[in-house]
Amino acid sequence: MGRQSTQYPTEVREHAIRLIFDHRGDCASQWEAISSIAAKIGCTAETLRRWVRQAERDSGAIRPDDGGWRADQGPGTGEPRAPAGQ
After folding, report:
1. Cβ count within 10 A of residue 18
2. Which CATH class is domain 10-59?
3. Counting C-beta atoms within 10 Å of the first and last residue's C-beta, which end of the chain has fewer, N or C?
4. For residue range 18-59, what is the model confidence (pLDDT) as tens digits?
């Protein structure tokens, strides 16, 4: 049996991503925020995480070539890595 794909309206995606960015400091980690908001909007945490990562790449907050996170903070902290050479 194959996976069933659910299409979410653009407005739902944008609202969920905005919630993640607006409430960065409210949770212990970005993953905790993603999990909480995903449950509220009815998608999986992994789906929302992918939307957030794409939004970060689109905005230039992280670079797709290196993962975009400083080694001392790691993914999910909400702190993007500074571009190389700065």
Report:
1. 11
2. mainly alpha
3. N
4. 999 998 888 999 999 999 999 999 999 999 999 999 999 998
